[in-house]
Amino acid sequence: GAGVSQSPSNKVTEKGKDVELRCDPISGHTALYWYRQRLGQGLEFLIYFQGNSAPDKSGLPSDRFSAERTGESVSTLTIQRTQQEDSAVYLCASSSTGGVPAYEQYFGPGTRLTVT
Amino acid sequence: GNSVTQMEGPVTLSEEAFLTINCTYTATGYPSLFWYVQYPGEGLQLLLKATKADDKGSNKGFEATYRKETTSFHLEKGSVQVSDSAVYFCALKENAGGTSYGKLTFGQGTILTVHP
User: Fold this and answer.
1) Tens digits of per-residue pLDDT, A9-22?
2) Which is nearest to B35 in space by CA: B109, B102, B96, B85?
3) Which residue of A has its CA nearest to B47?
4) What separation, in Å, do the N-terminal and C-terminal C-alpha atoms of chain B show?
5) Would you call A56 and B103 a contact, using CB atoms and an 8 Å cutoff?
6) Rounded to the nearest 5 degrees, what angle is found at the Cα of A70, between the Cα atoms of A67 and A71?
């Protein structure tokens, strides 16, 4: 079946503009995650959604970052008033849920954001 | 908070050489541990995992053993191939409250290059 898809694959924007990044999870996956990967660094957790529970926003770096998800479908990550330090690859992942042990997170190809 | 430390790269080996990539972690409780791999031009994918102490994860000739006493999860392969050239990420997930979902904490990644 289809994997996690993200759009756009590349985005170049000017400093100060707002951007929206989109993630389509694997059908039936109730958990959805956003991560950021800056050049030469590991992945940084941003936010995750699980069903109808309140999202875990603990990784969002500032109030310029927000994300939404409707039900168990598409999610959008919005960055307002972009700064050059926001330049990174933004990765989305989804997973099924249940009891322990851990369930695999399937990653999308990412959106490469460049702020000029 | 949780953290993952990987050996610094890049690592360059000849084909059929033995590979070790060190990974140590700091976490509260008993996390699940993972190795993810990112091949050139591809998305991040799970390589192997271990969910409790002394478990050994294995896949594609790679192995890693969950060592609670040394808080380590070193990745090994007895004979690397050119096709193993990729970036390898060690990661952990807290198993809080018996849930299977939750954010991953990643190391910074190790670039492996294997020459013929």
Assistant:
1) 999 999 999 999 99
2) B109
3) A104
4) 41
5) yes
6) 130
In angstroms, what CA-CA distances link A61 with A57, A66, B70? 9, 10, 32
SS3 B80: coil
What residues of A are in contact with residue B102 (Cβ under 8 Å)?
A: 48, 56
**CB neighbour burial string for A15-31, b if at least 16 within 10 angstroms, e if fewer:** eeeebebebbbbeebbb
Instruction: Specify whether the CB–CB gap between A86 and A114 falls below 8 A.
Output: no
* Residue A102 to residue B32, Cβ atoms within 8 A: yes
* pLDDT confidence of residue A101: 45
CA atoms within 13 A on the CB side of B66: 20
Dist. CA B25–CA B12, nearest whole Å: 24
Q: Is the dihedral of CA A31, A55, B99, B34 positive or negative?
A: positive
Out of A19-28, A33-42, B54-63, least confident range = A33-42
What whole-number distance in Å separates Cα of residue B33 and Cα of residue B18? Answer: 22
- The CA distance from B78 to B63, in Å, is 9
pLDDT at res. A66: 97
Give contacts of A 38-57 with B, CB under 8 A: 40-45, 48, 50, 56
